[in-house]
């Protein structure tokens, strides 16, 4: 079945460091791909998305490119801030006849130190 | 403001009691979802509903029940049959279109503690 694998956390970086969080997926067809962010004690917020191969999603300095050839959707940011500390989830949408179900990775906790 | 509301934010119950978690959306979305999140883990789908008066089991439906009598509302009941109900519960919704189903929007969550 469909699945998402994220790099293990926690990830600890200094402020202004470069961030990469790896995400690979297994899916039939052409799923949409998403990154969500969760701050402590809150729900998930959509960070960015890509709906087809070679699409680049971007938001708030974060970017991810939908790579079908490597089945990957890695999250990157050039210069992280303390306020980026959160848990990041990669997800894919199941096929249309499954009612928009999302398959989530296990999440990667990011901690940014001043 | 459009969005999803979940109430209450914290809920405490004694073992053996059923408890109902509320989820309301004013986004006019067709589909609604319930997820369970345990510490350090991803989200697992409990139930989802694409239209009113219809819903499907997700990956971990045992011990839970739902109803969808109105488009805006999708309450989740955690029954006494659920072996380990203490968790963070998240409700979400999404709309459909010619491109398929769009991204899901999440509520703030309800943290349920059963002792």
Care to give the gist of this entry?
Chain A is an all-beta fold and 114 residues long. Chain A has strands at residues 3-6, 11-14, 19-21, 23-26, 33-38, 44-50, 56-59, 62-65, 75-77, 86-93, 102-104, 108-113.
Could you characterize what this model shows?
Chain A has 114 residues and is mainly beta. Chain A contains no helices and twelve strands. In chain A, strands 2, 5, 6, 10, 11 and 12 form a six-stranded mixed β-sheet that branches. In chain A, strands 3-9-8-7 form a four-stranded antiparallel β-sheet, with no helix packed on it. In chain A, a hairpin with a 5-residue loop joins strand 5 and strand 6. Chain A is globular, with a radius of gyration of 14 Å. The mean pLDDT of chain A is 93. Chain B has 115 residues and is mainly beta. Chain B is 0% helix and 52% strand. Chain B contains no helices and 13 strands. In chain B, strands 2, 4, 5, 6, 9, 12 and 13 form a seven-stranded mixed β-sheet that branches. In chain B, strand 10 and strand 11 form a beta hairpin. Chain B is globular. The chains are: A mainly beta (114), B mainly beta (115).
Which helices and strands appear, and what pairs or packs with what?
The complex is a heterodimer of chains A (114) and B (115).
Chain A: E1 3-6, E2 11-14, E3 19-21, E4 23-26, E5 33-38, E6 44-50, E7 56-59, E8 62-65, E9 75-77, E10 86-93, E11 102-104, E12 108-113
Parallel strand pairs in A: 2-12
Antiparallel strand pairs in A: 1-4, 3-9, 5-6, 5-10, 7-8, 8-9, 10-11, 10-12
Chain B: E1 4-7, E2 10-13, E3 19-25, E4 31-37, E5 43-51, E6 54-57, E7 64-66, E8 76-78, E9 87-94, E10 96-97, E11 100-101, E12 105-106, E13 110-114
Parallel strand pairs in B: 2-13
Antiparallel strand pairs in B: 1-3, 3-8, 4-5, 4-9, 5-6, 7-8, 9-12, 9-13, 10-11
